[in-house]
Each structure stands twice: as structure tokens, then as C-alpha cells.
Amino acid sequence: MKRGSLNKYYLRKISLKAEEIFFRATMLFSSCIIIFILLLIIYSILQKGLPSLSIDMLTQTPKGGFYFGKEGGILNAIIGSIYLSLGATSLAFIIGLPVALFMNIWLSHKKKLVNSFRFILDLLWGIPSIVYGAFGFTVMIYFGIKASLIGGIVVVSLFILPIMIRAIDEGLKSSSVGLIEASYSLGSTKTETAFKVMMKQCLPCIITAVLLSFGRSIGDAASVLFTTGFTDHIPTSLTQPTATLPLSIFFQLSSPIPEVKSRAYAAALVLTVIILIISLSSRLFTIKYKKNRINF
Amino acid sequence: METLSVSKKVIPITNYQIPKKIQIENLNLKIGKKHILKDISVSVPKNKITVILGPSGCGKTTLLKSMNRLTDMYPDMEVTGKICIDDEDILHSGTDVTNIRKRMGLLSQRPYPLPMSIYKNIAYGLKISGRRKKRFLEKRIRHYLIQASLWDEVKDRLREPASSLSIGQQQRLCLARGLAVDPDIILADEPTSALDPISSQEIEKKFLELKNGYTIVMVTHVLRQAARIADYVIFMYLGEVIEQGPAYEFFNNPKTEITRAYLRGSIN
Lengths: 296, 268
Ligand SMILES: Nc1ncnc2c1ncn2[C@@H]1O[C@H](COP(=O)(O)OP(=O)(O)OP(=O)(O)O)[C@@H](O)[C@H]1O
Ligand SMILES: [Mg+2]
What we know:
The complex is a heterodimer of chains A (about 300) and B (about 270). Chain A contains 12 helices and no strands.
């Protein structure tokens, strides 16, 4: 009897050990795959793009015959992408922040309503960006608006709005009602609670939300394809069509000429570096602004 | 049977007639069908420490929150009755709720400092009341930090985030912050339950000092603490007030069987 239970004990111990080894191995394996793929992508972009990366590439707009291998650069697309993403992110932020605060402070007692709204936003998050592009395009045709920077900004901001709201919302949701009560009990109004207390508490989250949205908007090609158009010039007004990096990559990559193809990789390298800078600065900002946050 | 050492404060009979700060009459609070506070009628004497006792879930926090109108946060709470502070019914008054709340400082079970520096935590209350002059702010902040006996510990680090303080210091910061809105009532919901014994004692000591200028209402689970500092006790059970009266009488001469059982520690 005793021996049997002892055996069982050891069996259990061994199986637990095996389980742990198994899961640890799986995790290690998956992590390695991800890191490997990431390195592979960066390597291939670097290898194919670095040779064509030049000062001209970064400081010139496309000259005649650029897409056939002649001179010029992608400055139009770099500037265009930055204009577009800055515009779209600001617009989405101006709309998204009050919505997220409203959901969590004014509607804090209507859990069901807020949760169904969250569900809808999550659905919107999942919709492919080409659908936003097509939708925006239809609307623009209806109103007779041509492909332009402002059209792109509006469509892209619609596309990143769910991301923006939900990312800020997650931060607000996880802060305790105790903090809201503390603020109320000092005699603050809801608006003061929202903008002076909760916004400060969620500053790291808000920065992450902004940079996440910026990253999404600068990297997306499908939503700008019909709405922003493409041009060789740097736009000087909101109503002009605007080039973007993803589309620039797309057009150059579809060319049969090897020089142009390798320029596409150089453009991809530029885009990757921009996104990398954004991610890193998001980390830094988050660390910097975390210090005031009250941990629950 | 556990004997509680109540300091033999001789409560003069006139204590029954001391001025009332808060007077609650027939307060009922329901959430849907759940009747949480049942016909509460209590009075809180001015410039005394009133302790609310009772087993978990009996509605102590809810009673405290309704005094502060924090119950407004839950529109499905149906509150009826009267809560008079200085003879003004705050449940149905035309006064802005923010002004009502400014008359009370609230300490919660665990401290919730605001997500900003120590300095700004206290400046916050002053600023939303419209006081913005830097000289004035600095003077007041020093005053309230001294009052909460936190000044010596933080005077060199006022610009550091409040989250860098220890829990006990945070609770004293919350006290200072509450005092800064210039209330005359302090509501405290188990203010020492997250604190170590030393920090708890400091808060108790602070309360004993502050009661000359403030009316203090405190919820606690610790009978010994109640015995140490209470002047007046309100005992609740399942949403009802079972007994209220001067602390000395409550502890030494409980009137109901439920109270006796609670004091023996056989309810909880
Ligand atoms: N927002 C709410 N919605 C529904 N029920 C609530 C709400 N707040 C409190 N209650 C209920 O009201 C009753 C009293 O709660 P309360 O928090 O006042 O008790 P308490 O005496 O403070 O208990 P404790 O000593 O554990 O803090 C409990 O049964 C609780 O479930
Ligand atoms: Mg409670």
C-alpha cells in the first residue's frame, strides 16, 4: 500500500517535471522561430536595400524615368508618409482620447453598454485596411473628392481610431475606481477627474496608443491606395494627391528592372527604420512617464 | 471572554447633548431588490471621533460613501431619507455635489495618491478651488504636510512622484491632501487596514490630535483600535444600526445580544 502511493508520488513528480520541460521547450522553440524570422527579414532588406541607399535617394524626388532606373529619390514618399501619419494620428487622437475617457468615467456604471462598444471596436480593429480604403473611396467618389492628402488622412484616421480608443481604454480600464473616488472626494468634477487625474495615470498607455497608431498608419498601403493617390511631388496643400512609402515600395517592387527593384528594398529599409525609431521612442517615453503612475 | 481595555474616560452626561455635525434620518439604500441600508437614523457628534463597527458586508462603507455622495457614481442605487450636515440636507440640496464633497476629506482602505508629485497631490485640491498663487500654495502645502506629520520625511523630495512613498506615507499624504480642501469632516474607511502597526498608530495619534478641529467618522474592523480612539460608536449589522452611543457605554454596557456576541468575537 505504502509502496504504491510512494510510486504514485514519484510518477506524479516525474510527469510534472516532463510537463514543465515540454512547455519550456515549446516556448523556447517558438521564440527562436520568431527571432529567426525577424532577423531574416531585416537581413534581406539590408542586403538588398543597402547598396541602393544613397543620399540622393533620401533627398531627391523622383526625376523623369525614375521608375525605369534613372535618377531621383523617394523624398516625396518619405515626406508624404510622415504628413499622412501625423495628420491621421492627430485626428484619431483628438477624437479617440475623449471617447476613451467618456467610456470609462461618464459611462463607468453602464458596464454592459461599454463592453458592447468595446466589442464593436475590436471588430473594427479586425477589419482589413483595404475595406476602409474601398469605403473611403466610395464616399469620396460620391462627394466628388479626388484622391488627396486630406482624403487619406480621414480614411487612415478612421482605420486607426479603433486601435487608438481601445489602447487608451485598456489603460483606463485597468486603473481602479478607487482613484476616481479619491478624485471625486476632493471635490473634482468629472471633467477634472478625466483630464487631470485619469489622463495622467494613463499617460504611458496614451503614448503607447499614439505610437502604435502612428506605426499602423505609416505602414499601411491598402487604405491609401485609392484615397491618397500617388505623385512624384511633395504635396503643398491638403487637397493634393500624396505619395506614401508603402505604395512607393509596391510600385518599385513590381518593376522588372533590377535597379528599381533594389530601390524598393532601400525604401523598405527607410520605412523599417522609421518604425523602429517609433517603437524605441515609445519604450523610452513609457519608461519616463511611468514614474507618476500609481500601481494597484 | 476578551476584555477590552477602554480608557476610563468619564463621559459627562452632557455628552448626550453635544452639538451634532451629521444627522442621518431614515436613510434607505437599495440596489435593485437588494436592500443595503435599512432605515438608518444616526447622529454624529461634532469634534469627536465616531467609529462605525460591524461585521463584513453590513454596509459600513456604503453608509460612509452616501455621506460623501459618492453613491452618485452608481445611478442604480436608490437613496432615500435625509443626511443633514449642519442642518443642510445634502441628499436633496441644490448645492453642487463638488462643494458638498469639499466639506469632507475621505481616506480609503488603501491609499490612492494622485498620479503626480507629492507637491502636486496637495496642490491639486487647492488649485481646483481656485488658489493658484505659488507663494500661497507652498505655505499651505507645508502646513498640511506638517499637520499630517509627513513634512520631515518628504520636505526634500516634494517633486518626486507620490508613488515612490511607502504605503504608510501615502496614507498620510492622502490625509494631508484631504485636509487641503479645508473640510470640517474626515471620513475614513478602514484607513489603517493596509498599514503596518507603526503607521497605524501614527494615523490613530493624528486622529486624536485632529478631532479638536474636525469631526471624524471612521470605519474599522479592529475592536482594540475602536476602543482606543472612539468617543462614540455606531454598531451596524446586516444593513441596520443596532446600537449607537458613547464608546464607554458601548464597550462596557452593550444593550443587545448581537452587540455582546460581536464584542465577544463570535460574529464575523
Ligand atoms: N456597487 C454595488 N453594487 C451592488 N452591491 C453592492 C455595491 N456596493 C456594495 N454592495 C453590497 O452592499 C453590501 C454592503 O457593502 P459594504 O461595502 O458597505 O460593506 P462593509 O460593511 O463596508 O463591508 P467590509 O467590512 O467588508 O468592508 C454588501 O452586501 C455588498 O455586496
Ligand atoms: Mg468596507
